[in-house]
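User: Okay, second chain of the day. Same drill as before: sequence in, structure tokens out.
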Amino acid sequence: MKSHEIDYEIKGHDIQFVEIELDPQETVIAEAGAMLYMKEGIEFEAKMGDGSEPDKGMFGKLFSAASRAISGESIFLTHFTHRGVGKSQVAFSAPYPGTIVPLQLSELGHSIIVQRDAFLCAALGTKISMQFHKKIGSGFFGGEGFILQKLEGDGKAFIHAGGTVIEKELNNETIRIDTGCIVAFQPSINYSIERAGGLKSMVFGGEGMFLATLSGTGKIWLQSMPIGKLIQKLAPMGGNSRKGGGTSILNTFLED
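Assistant: Same drill. Structure tokens below.
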């Protein structure tokens, strides 16, 4: 299915949102709860599937929903369609401070692999599927690494990175990265998990026990502040009130 052609504008700085402009009958799909606002003429519907394969039967839709559930995502995607006249807009916000990255899938070999919670929204026609690593060790030690999502299509997709996004292009090179800092990479990139040096470095080095290794030729996207690391830094700051009933700084941050 050919993806709908959508226009967009990314707004904001520390906590960004993307405003999608739709022509009549154009549709954008998004993660449940990502919508910030929508203007007149936009209608939405939660569906069990991304709509990239309209002829897919109920069994296929159930399998897709089960895959999303395993990856920790909602089994439903929300479809926003412009049913009015002229142009209208719908906006989607990032779930925590960071950067929204637009990806033109047709310029990236029509597919990209992303961290399971990185996907924000995409033009209708984008296929979203679960992606497993070949090596089971990546699942046990890779943190967010075992189950990823694969985005396929020829249109626009938008992903979210915590903090600042770093885009690099490897040319038959290898780079070692904190496992939580990977946002996305092209399928031509090989991914594996390795020990972070000797036993002393693993226990006292502060970099975790394992590092991700990306090698090959292609583009990768990294994030400077993954949400897991942010929570770890905030957690020790809260909580220990004198009577045990105080609200921690972490809880306050999450509630905001």
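The longest strand covers residues 165-178.

User: Thanks, on to the next one.
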